[in-house]
Amino acid sequence: MARKKFQFKAETKQLLDLMINSIYTNREIFLRELISNASDALDKLRYEALTNKELLGDNLKYEIRLLPDATNHTLTIIDTGIGMSKEDLIDNIGTIAKSGTKAFMTKLQEAQENKEATTDKEMIGQFGVGFYSAFMVADQVSIVSRKAGEDIAYKWQSTGDGSFTIEESESKLIGTEITLQLASEFFGEGAELNLTDTSTLQHLVKKYSDYVRYPIKMDFTVEETPKDEAGKPLENAEKTVRVETRTLNSMQPLWSKNKKDIKQEEYDELYKSLFHDWEAPLTTLHTKAEGTVEYTSLLFIPSHAPFNLYHTDYEPGLQLYSRHVFIMNKCKDLLPDYLRFVQGLVDSPDLSLNISRELLQQDRQLKLIGKNLEKNVLSALTKMLTNEREKYEKFWQEFGRSIKIGVYNSVYGAQETLDKLKDLLLFATSSDTNKLSSLKEYKERMPETQKKIYYANGKDRQSIEHLPQMELLRDKGIEVLYLYDPVDEFALEVLNEYDKVPFQSISRGDLGLDDVETQEKQKKIDDIAKTNEDLLKDIKAVLGDKIAEAHLSNRLKSSAVCLVAAAEGPSLAMEQAFAATEQHMFKAKRILELNPEHDLFSRLQKIHETEKDSDDFKDYCQLLYDQALLIEGIMPDDPIAFADKVARLMSK
Ligand code: ADP
Ligand code: MG
Question: How far, in Å, is the centroid of ligand 2 from the Cα of 152?
Answer without folding.
Answer: 24
